Amino acid sequence: MPSGVSVTSEPPQSAALLEFLRTPASYPRTRSVQFIETHLSWVFLTETHVYKLKKPVHRSFVDLSTLAARYRNGTEEVRLNQRLARGVYLGLVPVIRSPAGRLRLGHDGGEIVDWLVKMRRLPASHMLDFAIAHGNVDLGRLRQLGALLCHFHARAHRIDLPPARYREDLRAALLANARALEDGGYGLDLKLLRGITDCLLHYLERHAEEFDARVNAGRIVEGHGDLRPEHIYLGSPPLVIDCLEFNRALRLLDPLEELATLALECERSGAGWVGRFVHGVYSRECRDIASPSLLAFHTAARGLLRAKLCAWHLRDAAVSEHGRWLASTRQYLTLAERHAARCASPGSGQ
Description:
It is a single chain. The protein has helices at residues 15-21, 67-81, 128-133, 139-155, 163-183, 190-206, 208-216, 255-268, 272-286, 292-313, 319-344, and strands spanning 6-7, 34-37, 41-45, 49-54, 89-97, 103-105, 111-120, 221-222, 232-233, 239-240, 252-253. The chain is an alpha+beta fold. The longest helix has 26 residues, at 319-344. Mean pLDDT is 91; it is low at 2-12 and 346-350.
C-alpha cells in the first residue's frame, strides 16, 4: 500500500461509491459509462478504458473483504495479466474522498476509499465471443492464438508435485463441485449429476498412468486459469485478458485443462470447431499430443465447474435472472455429460 495517503476504516462499498463510478463526469473526457456486474467485481467501461472494482467478499477460495486485500489482489491482477495482455493493464487507481466528502479518482491526497484496476478498453468487435456470435472467426488469428498459448505455456513456471497429489487434487475438485451442485437445492437432475461424477472418477482411477505421465513430463504449469472466448482478443497480435488472479492454486494446471475450458465454452456457443481448431494448432506447435479421452475428461470436469459457478449465482440473482442462471447451469451439465461419455469411450474422439 502506498505511503503518505490515509485509508478508510473499512466501510462496506456504498451505493454512493457505485453511483460515483457509474457517472461519466467522474472520469476524464468521458460521455458515457457502461456497467457490468460479475461474481466478484463491478466493472465500469468508458469509451477508452475499463475500471474494475472488486467486491468486498470473503469466500472459501478468495478473501477480498479488506481494503488491503483488494489492493494486493489488484496489484497481482496487473502483474499476472502482463503475461498474455501486455499494455492492456495500466495499473491501480485509488478512489479518494476529499476532506469535504467528495469522491474523485487520483493519487493526490485525501482518504483512499477503494482501488480500481485500470485497463485499456479493447474493441468488442475483435473479441472471440463476438466473432463466434457473428460468424466471422478469422482462421489466421486462431492460428496465432494457438501459437501464443503454446509459447506462453512453454515459458510458464513449471510446478513440481507428486503425480499422486495432482490426481488427488483433481478428485477433490470433482467431488467438491458435484457436492455443491447436489446440496445447493437447485432442483437439478441428481441422477445425471451422479452419473457424470462417477464416470469421471472411474476414468481418473483407471487412467492414473496417463495423468502421472503428464506430471512427470513437466506439463503442470502456472497458467491463465480462465481461458474463455470473452477473454480472447483476436487483434494483431492476439491477447488474452482476465486471468484468474485471486487464487494461485486454481492457476496450477495442465494446459489441457485450459484448452478444455476454451473447447467447452466454444461448444456452448455453437462453435465447437473453434476449440478443436485451436487445440490442433497448439498440439502441433507444442508437440503435445494427448489422447482424445483425456481432453474429454478435462472438458467434462470443467463443465461441472462452470455449472457450479452458474448455480452460485442463483443464490443472489434477482427473480428476473433466476431462469437464465438455472438454464446455464443445466446446459453446462448437459455438456459435461456429453464429454464424460466420450472419455468413457476412448475411441470416440472429439
